[in-house]
Amino acid sequence: MTRALYRNAARSLACALTLACAIALGLFAAAGTAGAQTLNEDDTTIPLTEDLSKMAGTGGGDQSSKNEASLKMGLWIETVSNNTFLIRDMDKHEKSGFEHDHSAIYSEANWWFWGDLSPSFHLDAEVGVWELDHTLYQANSWGDADPDTSWRDGFSRLGGIFFAPLYGLNDVTPGVFNKGAITLKSPVLNARAGYGLLKNNSMTGFTGIFNMIDPWDDVGKGFLELSLGEGAKRAGGNVSFDALAALSRMREQYGIYSFFKTSLFEKADIALTFTSTSKSTEFADYADQNDNTASLYAAWRPTEPLTLSVHGMGTFGTERDLSKRSLAGAVRAAFKAGVYAGELSASLAGSEARSLWGDDDTVNPGALVTSLDQTVTLGPALIALDADWALNEADAEAGVLSLDEGLWNLRWQPRFEYDFAEKTGLPIKTGVYGVFNTNRIGKATDSEQPWTTNAEEAGIEVTLSDVPGLKKLVFDYALKIENKAWTHAYGYEWDTIYHSFMLSCEMTDALSATAASVLRQKSDADPTLVPFGAAAGVSYKTGVKALGSPQVWCHFVYGMDPYEDVNYSLYRLDDPLNRPTHTTYLLNSLYENVYQSRISVGLIWDLQ
Predict the structure, then answer these.
(1) How would you classify residue 207: left for phi > 0, otherwise alpha for psi between -120 and 50, otherwise beta?
(2) Are 558 and 87 contacting, i.e. CB atoms less than 8 angstroms apart?
(3) Per-residue pLDDT tens over the stretch 45-83
(4) Distances, alpha carbon 416 to alpha carbons 336, 408, 427, 473, 544, in Å
(5) Which DSSP helix (H) or strand (E) runs through 430?
(6) Contact yes or no for 154/74 (Cβ under 8 A)
(7) How far is residue 178's CA from residue 473's CA, in Å, rounded to a whole number?
(8) pTM confidence score
(9) Calpha distance 524→541 (Å, rounded)
């Protein structure tokens, strides 16, 4: 297939999807004008004078109306005082004492509402009521006695805010939609459009063996999806279909993601996916520059415990032809029966194979990978082995993998968990794991192709639950070792060692505390290294129900920042937002050299 054909195919598909989306939205808009309130996309003013209890779909007013629905609302307010201190100088990051650097107040309020305005119209939206990031004090970066912002100036400007709070608390004009999503449903066709941090109402994803469409939570500029309605998915009692076509500006300038899936007799599944992106600044030039990936996935369940699957994909576009460099394929067998569950897979991908809209870590471009994940559950005990056998860096010149060149790597992770409650009555659960690497150094590095094994990570977790005076306590310790590049003379020498500690304690449903620490060791002297980090925090949800039970929290951090995701909880490396593929008990902020210390207090007011 030539590049001209790619351009023509991409142009035709993009135009067809755009036309289909426009027609579908037009039909839904026409059908929704009767008895439903319309949404003006350009209206970003907060309707503070509207009585939402009388709006269609709020559950108020005449409940005998055929247009019954429920619109729920809430107001989220968060106010934080941050005070930072330098523990290293700002230029060379070398040790220079402890110096107050910055004090600020941050406050944010979001009015959010969601629900069904009619049986066919679902709405999710968040309006920013205010967002303030106000500096109370800022030291001079050159170390002079005269600060950039003095306490007098900081508090003077803060006082002026309250003469017009809703306007003064905003660095930008108030009333901007932070996120929004609408879903229009019919028996034949559904349409959904949204932007921003949508979470449960985010884009639709697809994963076979390869992750082809990764459903982001924060979809940025957003998407427009068309999918089959429930009435169109069934072709018969044993055959079902699902299809989706979407336009978006989340990746590159413009993009398309789509799939078609069918399930046959509850024994087999087949799925086709097509994803595409273009860097062209004008949509009309989409056909002149584009990258595309098509994939075919099939799964078959010959018996109840066994599932066999295969997945193939290819990447092509105006700047690359379909070739062995851009192809990828994988097979997988999953088995689950009794105490045993296991999954064995193998994949081979050229160096230019890309999913475009998915997670390329599942594709492993330029590598041959075999993975085995198995667990045995014996009453309160779980024994697991997670292993990946990969050949990397072996197709840079030839375009195909060479078994004699490149780096062979076996990553194997044994894991053991035990719940003492079942046998001893003690409310304790523990887990331990280790991560090891066995490498064969390729010919490009050493003609003898030596094999070497080294430890990479180890950890232990202890969980104590439901004891008098304590709801739950979780303690984690993990060790991480980073090595220097392998040499024939010294093999793998360690470069940095991290010791990670976490403690999460829930005393009651309202009161919780956290603590964390990290120790960093370098084999070579490094004056910029912060060898020790510590953090501690507490959170309390008040019982003042008349005020919506606001939550107050406080934390202190030094040389690390483990509260970067949610202010009052630790951010672990295996946090679901990180979509971990392996068990780990490490902190997410382990590797950062943080040159500041901070004391923060805050209030979270969640009114629903």
Answers:
(1) beta
(2) yes
(3) 333 333 333 333 333 334 444 455 587 888 888 899 999
(4) 19, 27, 17, 20, 44
(5) strand 428-440
(6) no
(7) 36
(8) 0.79
(9) 46
Contact 432, 405 (CB under 8 A): no
Q: Determine the distance from the C-alpha atom of residue 296 to the mean position of all C-alpha atoms in its chain, rounded to a whole number.
A: 25
Q: What DSSP assignment string belongs to 374-396?
A: EEEEETTEEEEEEEEEEEES--T
> Which pair of tokens denotes residue 536?
């501690």
Question: HSE on the CB side for 516, CA within 13 Å?
Answer: 30
Output Rg (C-alpha) for the chain, integer angstroms: 28
Lowest mean pLDDT among 85-99, 420-434, 486-500, 587-601: 85-99
| pLDDT of res. 475 | 96
C-alpha 585/C-alpha 466 separation (Å) is 22
Kindly report, residue by residue over 523-571, the tens digit of the pLDDT: 888 888 889 999 999 999 888 777 778 889 999 999 898 987 656 788 8
Residue 328 has which token pair?
A: 């990828």
Q: Cβ(573)–Cβ(581) under 8 Å?
A: no
Distance CA 367, CA 327 (A): 12
Find, among 182, 176, 76, the residue nearest to 124 by Cα. Answer: 182
Work out the percent of the chain whose per-residue pLDDT is above 90: 41
Rounded Cα–Cα distance for residues 86 and 275 (Å): 47
- E-strand ranges in 154-238 read 176-184, 189-195, 206-207, 211-213, 223-228, 234-236
At 123-144, the pLDDT tens digits run 889 888 888 888 999 888 665 5
**Residue 213 burial (C-beta neighbours within 10 Å; 0-12, 13-18, 19+):** buried
Show Cβ contacts of residue 150 under 8 Å, excluding neighbours closer than 6 positions: 137
Q: Which residue has 């409310």 as its token pair?
A: 427
Rounded to whole angstroms, the Cα distance separating 287 from 295 reads 20
- Residue whose token pair is 């989220």: 76
* C-alpha distances in Å from residue 584, one per residue of 152, 206, 390, 430, 574: 48, 25, 20, 14, 6
